[in-house]
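Notebook, p. 212. Picked up where the previous page left off. The plan for this session was modest: take the two constructs that came back from the sequencing core last week, fold each one, and keep the raw output in the notebook itself so nobody has to go hunting through shared drives later. Recording the first one now, exactly as returned: residue sequence, then the structure token string.
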Amino acid sequence: MTNLFKIAIIAAPLAGLIFYYVVMQQSKLDTEIEKESLKFEQHWNEFKAESPFTQDRQKYQSRAEQAEQKQKELEQKKKEKEQKIEKFTSDFEKALDEVDKQQGK
């Protein structure tokens, strides 16, 4: 029974770290999907602005510029998230090494 308790004490923080890592990776993927969506929106609005059949070219051009601005903001957020993930990964690896050392004793 005591061994089971020791395993639970060790496994709980590791499970929490793994869950946090998965959430961070999912957040990174969500940002990438949103970025691709904005690229499509920008290209579509540029296409509509250049189309000879379009009535309100200014509206589509302003939408394309807004999409481009959002892309730049997302790129900055993506870089920040990548830095957080790299930091977390290094901290996670250190924690795993410490657990291995403790279990080895």
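Okay, moving on. Second construct, recorded in the same format:
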Amino acid sequence: MRFILYGIQVALLAGGLLWKTVQLTKRPYDIPLRVVVATLTAAIAGWVINTVHGRAGAPATSDDTILLWIGHTLNPVVVCYGIACFYVVASQPVRRRFRDGLLWRSVLLLIAIAIGGTAAVSGPTSPASSHVILLVSNLYCGAVLAATAVVCHQYARSAEPRLQHGLLIVSTGAGVIALGCAVKAFVIVATWRGGHLERLSTMVGTVMLAGVVLFLAGILYPAVRMRATATRMWVRHFRAYQRLRPLWTALSTAFPEDTLRIPDETFWDKTKPSSVHRRLHRRIIEIRDGLVHISPYLGADSPSSPEALAPALRSALARLARGEHATTTDSYPVAIPAQAGRRSELETLVALSNAFAQDRVVAAS
């Protein structure tokens, strides 16, 4: 179980860092996004140091205690500071941001780093130094994460549903980690005084690891949900774009002048989600123009249902191709949706295109 949670944590950290770094390249002046990238970078650096330090054992050298300080105190303290900074810069006005929000957090950060750093340098081989380092780390992180849990819970009350769910998950994860830090601090003090609570420490470590996974999942939840919604929209538009092809092909062949000119697109431009939306919108406009131009060949009273309009439309296009005269000189909109709106119009044109393709199969047979 612990191994699975550990793997999920690493995957979330690495995936989140890659994702947010790409976003930062597009919005380099976004201060909250900078804080997120810096925090994730520090978290991954700490994971690497802790992993290497754990596998290397505990040699009686100064590097041992310094690595312990960097991996178990400096890194989580900086990460917690980054978390606190994120909520400060994302919620308070710019003029009051550093004066009201970051001042006391910065003071606590410097105190925690100074105490842990002094213990790491002054007592490299002393167990008391390791206890001081770990105690400072757990006390500072517990305090900051407890405050973060309260703030997230308060923000969740007035947030939109997507952000509300993410904040509640973050609040739960932060609360679990903060509680674990408090228990860890108790275990450290008890061990320092000669107690043996290894089993409790292992259990708390597993619970805290689950809290970290919850915390990271909550941070990424709003963006993931938004991306999932955008993906569903992209799939729906892509399918509609493909289903409109039979009708569009027939009309664009008959009226090539209705085809809109578009600038040259690179491969990367075509792979963007917005590219499908643009192409679908362009295809709808071209179909609408073609239907208006073919309407004189349909007569003054064209069928309204897609099943009846499809064969009439095919006959009108055939008469146009043979050079015959139109039934009337007046042009008018064809295949008008029953309700106003982009979605209703798209459904009407897709239904007509499907009926047009089916009629072609019937005519060919």
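Notes on construct two before I forget. The CA atoms of residues 51 and 71 lie 9 Å apart.
Flagging for discussion at group meeting.
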